[in-house]
Amino acid sequence: MVGVSDGPAGFQAIREANLGIVLRTIRQTAPCSRAVVAASTGLTKATVSSLVADLIDRGLVCETGLVTERRVGRPGMLLTIDGSTLVAIGLEVNVDYIAVSAVDLLEREVLSRHVEFDASSAGPEACAARLREVLLEVAADPLLRDRPLVGASTAVPALIDAPAGTVTNAPNLGWRDFPLRERLTALLAGSPLEGLPLLVDNDANLGAVAEYRGGHLARTLDLVYLTGEVGIGAGVLMNGELLRGASGFAGEVGHIPLLGNGPLCACGRRGCLESLAGMDTILRRAVPELVPEGPVRGSGLGELVAETARRAEAGDAAALAALRTAGTWLGRAVATLVNLLNPSAVVLGGYFVPLAPWLLPPCRAAAAAHSFAPDGGGCRIEPSALGLSAAARGGAMALIDALDTGALPLPPATAA
Amino acid sequence: MVGVSDGPAGFQAIREANLGIVLRTIRQTAPCSRAVVAASTGLTKATVSSLVADLIDRGLVCETGLVTERRVGRPGMLLTIDGSTLVAIGLEVNVDYIAVSAVDLLEREVLSRHVEFDASSAGPEACAARLREVLLEVAADPLLRDRPLVGASTAVPALIDAPAGTVTNAPNLGWRDFPLRERLTALLAGSPLEGLPLLVDNDANLGAVAEYRGGHLARTLDLVYLTGEVGIGAGVLMNGELLRGASGFAGEVGHIPLLGNGPLCACGRRGCLESLAGMDTILRRAVPELVPEGPVRGSGLGELVAETARRAEAGDAAALAALRTAGTWLGRAVATLVNLLNPSAVVLGGYFVPLAPWLLPPCRAAAAAHSFAPDGGGCRIEPSALGLSAAARGGAMALIDALDTGALPLPPATAA
DNA sequence: TCCATTAGTTTGATGACTGAACGAATTAGT
DNA sequence: ACTAATTCGTTCAGTCATCAAACTAATGGA
């Protein structure tokens, strides 16, 4: 867990690891005194003092006052994560918008933006340029001005080579093999944000991180986040770490085969989960007369989903039937996840959220019916509480997480 | 990867981590000189010298001679993993036998035993007593005598709480909630093996480790091992680490739902993988007149599988059909694994191995047809080359692995 | 023979943690 | 009010593993 990151361990490594441990401990048990931190980490009081002093210098931790309880002995100085200085920025590129979210160390959302942008027709290069603009703009915003940045992350609905920061294949955007981080780094050269740590990842993965850090299931070490956008993707967090697989394809839950001779899927096969419980299928059955011929994409989607919810609310038979069958298939897919991964929670995100009241009951029933473990291995199935821009926030939180786990890119030098 | 294991990092921690790094480097590039190790780890020559001296003292590494190549400069002293001292012992409990395997640091099998024992009717306590006997016997064997032990592991076909060393539920043995490690530790107290690090894990997990370290797919970081015993289980190794899930249920691939109204499975549901491609189903279709009424278990299984292979070889229609359909269903399950986990290899173990010539072609075809990634994400599907006692060897190798990764329980103190 | 080159060891310095002792701040008891 | 007991945090010397650089060792080539 601690993970002095790869490579030989020297003095810096040990220091960084311990800084991470102390930071995490303070986050978990704040507000608390140095003495408590020492006791619960096993480090010496002396070491903790030194480490805390360092963290205070860097603006990660602050002293908030003395212990109020009336106990024998000198009262301790209370420590808390300092939410007033550092900030992490998360960007999310989607088919027709760029979402921005800035999060402080206390995981509070400091700023949130929604920028209209047609990423699919603009192409990757233009999008990178726009991302640069947005980033510079946001960083200069009065809310963030003069606050040091941890880094910036970008969520893309695509297959990503995260270590390299490359977008391998983004079908909905029409991008292939675009080295996004490399381009962004180049574009930011010379600007005030030069050298900022940049992170690129898949929207489902970052959605999972957002749930892990910010949702009401926070701190659940083994969870799966299901995106309900045009497709269905999964972000899998096992033991607090993202599962990526050998080539980054892990979590392509949308195309697991569920029904032998099922309906034709966009991928060319039959009976994929996406063809049974994808938005497209739900909408075509729930509000058939409103759905155009071609594939449903972009901003129209939200409207159609809302209409589906209205009709279900009103008791419309077609809408209810569509949601019931979709929920059941989703439940079978969840059962598969449960049998293979045994997560403690599966979170439904994206457009599944507004439809959750009708999807969840059949989904839970089917999941329970097809899980091997008696009670589904104790797995909860819940709608996300984070809204549509979960991936943007998740990206920002992933950066905060990197600080805590000691895999921190670089906690900024003394800001004072 | 290095992973100064949890808890605060001190001097010992950093030392152990670096010892692990050097050990692993030597294993990967042996035979090699200290200078090469220094260059490829990033550590100083001085540090490497110190670490290597330590490893030699502990009997993990030995010098084998000078560099033979004729090059300018002083020739280096070649280092290799020392396979002649330390040994790890792996035990495997199964329905009707206990398998033993001892492996040296070079991953060579030093000793292998097969002990008849009816674990299901003897009960857990008697089995633990027998394991103790076997362990003491093996440790006293001339082949192992005077060689220091890394530890002993026990593979059980069951749901395991590995950190605790407890067998949660072993349906085929009829055990529930048996604290195996605790009992073994107690039973070994007073014997020469007192204090020996003990490890308990699931047979599929340890099979995966065996493939990772010893199979012809060695060093594949992301692989899945499928056991073909009475049931079908999966050991999942992601990024070189075992996937366990929230409560140890991960890898219950035998009961993922594949067919809506499929045949009744032993678990009470319909259409599970096990009911479509389990040994029981294959045998009932391939050699119907030889299979008794009740569930097939124990030693009879091997015979029936061999007969099935013979008939398939001879072109028997029923046998071929049974294997073809089972292979196809297996392939669909593999496709699900590939879509979710994106492993670089799936290994078929247990009784799947003798049947592989007939199972593999339809399996590969179905897997390719139902994977989202173009070429199955580059996933290879191969039969295991390790035979039936893979789990025993895997357990021993897991201990060796623990040494390499620096998560080593305790490399023994100076043996000299 | 002498030099260039590479291998491995020795030596002193640095940095980070530890342990014990100390000063600080507060409550409990007389 | 004053002392004892406690608990908090800091200071200071001590330990230990790494690092950098100098040094010895062994070989090939001029």
UniProtKB/TrEMBL annotation, chains A, B:
Q: By what name is this protein known?
A: Putative NBD/HSP70 family sugar kinase
| Matching PANTHER family | BIFUNCTIONAL UDP-N-ACETYLGLUCOSAMINE 2-EPIMERASE_N-ACETYLMANNOSAMINE KINASE, ROK (REPRESSOR, ORF, KINASE) FAMILY
Q: What is stated as this protein's family in its record? A: Belongs to the ROK (NagC/XylR) family.
Among its keywords, does the record have Kinase?
A: yes
Question: Which CDD domains does this one have?
Answer: ASKHA_ATPase_ROK_BsXylR-like (cd24076)
UniProt keyword Transferase present: yes
Enumerate the UniProt keywords alphabetically.
Kinase, Transferase
One example of the protein's molecular function in GO is: kinase activity
Query: Could you tell me the superkingdom of the organism this chain comes from?
Result: Bacteria
